[in-house]
Amino acid sequence: MQRLGKIIGAVFLSLVIHSGCGSSHKEKSPVVAKVGEAELTVQDIMKNVPQNPTLKVSGVQVEQYVQRWIESEIIYQEAIRMGVMNSPEIRERIDDLKRDAVISAYLDQTIESSAMVTPDEIQQFYEENKESFTREDNQYHLMIILSDSYGNANASRRRIINGEDFAQVAKNHSLDASKEQGGDLGWVTLDQLPAALARTIPALSIKRISMPINTEVGYEIVQMLDIRKKGELKTLDEVKDVITMRLLTIKKERRYNDLVSTLTGNSDIRTNWQLVRAVVSDSLMR
């Protein structure tokens, strides 16, 4: 059902796009797929690939995208053949979607793209709202090595005690995904850890290597690098992203309100509130 919903959504989006476009000329780009006269090009795919370099897109995902385009296009073409576009209800829905798209694009241009937060504003917000940034739980900076047996875990522990680097031992022997970071979990709270680790960590001294701990995923050795205690003030680096989002939201809301106020003053607006109240009253009595 979820897959069918996605297809239907894609088809309706196709109706919107096709209704607003004529036979506009595309830049020459290799054709990946074709359904009747409709073409999907490499350029079309690239427009829909996330531009964030940290997000990896696999070949399988691209193939799935192409297959979904084919499915939506064949259904779209059948819908056109059956006269779906002639339905007043569909035309009204398309007009509503176009209107919403234009509004969204305009707000992006006038508000979203110009909203910025400076380092000084972040610092000022932090200084003025420190009471909001106290730590609610202890946080622990941990490194771990996961093994499939007590013996292997203890062997890794002895390597470290004998002078080998924890991170290098983790990279070479750990079965946990954190091995790519040298076993470094970063800052975590106890509720983010397996129960057996959570019971052990509070009693572990900083820099000490634990004995192998039997958890539901195997045997783990842990080293605590540091602790941030409950009730302490969080550092600016910890909360910088949160503050940035808060300030952006505040700025965007102010700009939106200012924009609406300006446009309202420049527009000819007439509202029959008496009729509105009558409609509301009538609907409540049903």
Helix content class = 40-55%
Which strand order do you get reading across the main beta sheet? 4-3-6-5
Largest sheet: 4 strands, antiparallel
How many H/I helices?
10
Might you state the CATH topology name of the domain at 135-228?
A: Chitinase A, domain 3
Please count the beta strands (DSSP E, at least 2 residues each). 6
User: What integer value in Å does the Rg equal?
Assistant: 29 Å
The succession of helices and strands, N to C, reads: HEEHHHHEHHEHEEHH
In quaternary terms, these chains amount to single chain
Structure write-up:
With 286 residues, the chain is of the alpha+beta class. Among the domains are: 2-87, no CATH class; 135-228, Chitinase A, domain 3. The chain has 10 helices and 6 strands, in the order H-E-E-H-H-H-H-E-H-H-E-H-E-E-H-H. It has helices at 2-19, 42-48, 59-81, 88-112, 119-128, 150-161, 166-173, 195-200, 236-265, 273-284, and strands at residues 31-35, 38-41, 139-147, 184-188, 213-215, 218-228. Strands 4-3-6-5 form a 4-stranded antiparallel sheet. It has a two-stranded antiparallel ribbon with strand order 1-2. The two termini are 34 Å apart. Mean pLDDT is 88; it is low at 1-8 and 19-26.
